Inverse folding.
């Protein structure tokens, strides 16, 4: 499951966008990371972003 959202709050501590993804297991995440469409979007984001943060966790 993937969710894309745009920030609605003005703050110096806020980010503009977020991607929330859920994967069945580590192998599914590994496949996602090299998927051509993900790589294309990732490369674009690298060109336009000022900073980035991420969180990985398992339930």
């Amino acid at each position: 499951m993937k969710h894309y959202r745009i920030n609605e709050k003005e703050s110096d501590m806020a980010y503009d966008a977020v991607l929330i993804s859920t994967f069945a297991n580590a192998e599914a995440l590994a496949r996602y990371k090299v998927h051509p469409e993900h790589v294309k979007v990732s490369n674009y984001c690298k060109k336009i972003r000022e900073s980035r943060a991420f969180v990985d966790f398992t339930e």
In short: The mean pLDDT is 88.
